């Protein structure tokens, strides 16, 4: 993902940027991750805000692939599959249509760029701190027991640090300490001495002192792959196979469980509650409340993929109608933008304005 992002020549073309955003999101299965990478690239000055806008749009298209995969799980029953697939593609089509309208508009006029620039300039921005963890507090202990990844490596590769190429993404040492020591080295002559450093002659050698920073590993991480000594690719394939297996099993079980729970009277009541509109003349409010619910839920789980994938089987078994799934999906798209804004808040003071600007474009 970092490699794909690094090709700036491709990113200068809006359509290529769009495809790259979609592709990277497809690879990492999370628009939050890819939009955070884009935000950190903008904050490190590698990407212009204008060329990052199509990439963010692409990230939104990539995120709608996950729930389409989820819909496939209900392929056993024709009617369920028809409804689930329709529920999943609501998201795809909304994203595609908004990109078809906004991308040419942005390429021609730069409206998003200009609008967000005005908003940012009107703020007096100070440096921020990292995003709060919401659902991660529950899920992190489990995921960290399986694997811990060094996200800095992805950002370093994307930002073109040559040393990052040979690094592994898998974290081995969780506690490290940097120690700086003074070391004596020989230099050809006095002229090569660092200004302000000690410099002296011993025999026919000129010696000086320089600071050397060493990273000392203190404590190993506690995940399964610490002692595995496997290449990243092997670990990735193992985890991919396992996660797809668990995902498919969970989705099939959820559909079966919901099917058995929602038979008879219970189903009738739940369907009524979820799919009824407010009484006349307030019917129009219902959709907006559903949008707010979708946005709130996505903010809590910090992933629109997770939320829209959770709705898909419910649409499949007919608990949520397609008409109600649409505003929930729209809300989910609004909720996922908070992740990019939180990622931007963590940027250093001097690049905070650019990072916030691309987050606001999103």
Topology (SSEs and partners):
Elements (H helix, E strand, L loop, with lengths): L1 H5 L1 H4 L2 H15 L2 H13 L5 H24 L5 H32 L1 H12 L13 H11 L4 H8 L14 E15 L11 E4 L2 E16 L11 H30 L3 H11 L9 H17 L2 H13 L5 H14 L1 H9 L6 H10 L1
Helix pairs in contact: 3-4, 3-5, 4-5, 4-15, 4-16, 5-6, 5-13, 5-16, 6-13, 6-14, 7-16, 12-14, 13-14, 15-16
GO molecular function: sodium:phosphate symporter activity
Function: Involved in actively transporting phosphate into cells via Na(+) cotransport.
Catalytic activity: 3 Na(+)(out) + phosphate(out) = 3 Na(+)(in) + phosphate(in)
List keywords for this structure.
362 residues, 2 domains, mainly alpha, elongated, single chain
Helix content: 55-70%
Instruction: Say how many strands there are.
Output: 3
Note the beta-strand portion. 5-15%
- Structural class of the helix and strand makeup? mainly alpha
Strand line-up in the sheet with most strands: 1-3-2
Residue runs with pLDDT of under 50 for 5 or more positions: none
Q: Given the structure, what is the number of helices?
A: 16
Average pLDDT rating: 81
How many separate domains?
A: 2
Order of SSEs: HHHHHHHHHEEEHHHHHHH
Shape: elongated
| Cα Rg | 25 Å
Main sheet summary? 3 strands, antiparallel
Calculate the terminal CA-CA distance, rounded to whole Å: 20 Å
Quaternary state reads single chain
Describe this structure as you would to a colleague.
The protein is mainly alpha-helical and 362 residues long. It has two domains: 2-147 and 230-361, no CATH class; 173-220, no CATH class. The protein is 63% helix and 10% strand. A hairpin with a 2-residue loop joins strand 2 and strand 3. Helix 5 packs antiparallel against helix 6 and helix 5 (49-72) packs across helix 16 (352-361). The model has no long low-confidence stretch (mean pLDDT 81).
């Amino acid at each position: 993902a970092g490699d794909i992002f690094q090709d700036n020549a491709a990113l200068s073309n809006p359509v290529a940027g769009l495809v790259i955003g979609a592709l990277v999101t497809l690879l990492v299965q999370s628009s939050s991750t890819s939009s955070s990478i884009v935000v950190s690239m903008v904050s490190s000055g590698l990407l212009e805000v204008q060329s990052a806008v199509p990439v963010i749009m692409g990230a939104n298209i990539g995120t709608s692939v996950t729930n389409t995969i989820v819909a496939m799980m209900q392929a056993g029953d024709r009617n369920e599959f028809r409804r689930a697939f329709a529920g999943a593609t609501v998201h795809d089509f909304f994203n595609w249509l908004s990109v078809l309208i906004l991308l040419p508009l942005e390429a021609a006029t730069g409206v998003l760029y200009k609008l967000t620039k005005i908003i940012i300039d009107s703020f007096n921005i100070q440096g921020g701190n990292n995003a709060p963890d919401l659902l991660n507090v529950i899920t992190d202990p489990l995921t960290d027991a399986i694997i811990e990844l060094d996200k800095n490596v992805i950002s370093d590769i994307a930002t073109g640090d040559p040393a990052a190429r040979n690094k592994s993404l898998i974290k081995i040492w969780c506690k490290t300490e940097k120690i700086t020591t003074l070391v004596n080295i020989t230099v050809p002559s006095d002229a090569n001495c660092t200004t302000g450093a000690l410099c002296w002659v011993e025999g026919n050698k000129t010696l000086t002192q320089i600071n050397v920073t060493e990273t000392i590993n203190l404590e190993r991480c506690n995940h399964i792959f610490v002692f595995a000594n496997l290449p990243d690719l092997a670990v990735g394939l193992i985890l991919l196979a396992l996660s797809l297996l668990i995902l498919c099993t969970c989705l099939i079980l959820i559909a079966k469980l919901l099917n058995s729970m929602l038979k008879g009277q219970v189903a009738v009541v739940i369907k009524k509650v979820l799919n009824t509109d407010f009484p006349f003349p307030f019917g129009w409010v219902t959709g907006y409340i559903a949008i707010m619910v979708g946005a709130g839920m996505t903010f809590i789980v910090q992933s629109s993929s997770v939320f829209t994938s959770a709705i898909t089987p419910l649409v499949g078994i007919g608990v949520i109608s397609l008409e109600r799934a649409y505003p929930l999906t729209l809300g989910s798209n609004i909720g996922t933008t908070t992740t990019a804004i939180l990622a931007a808040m963590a940027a250093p003071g001097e690049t905070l304005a650019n990072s916030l600007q691309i987050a606001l474009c999103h």
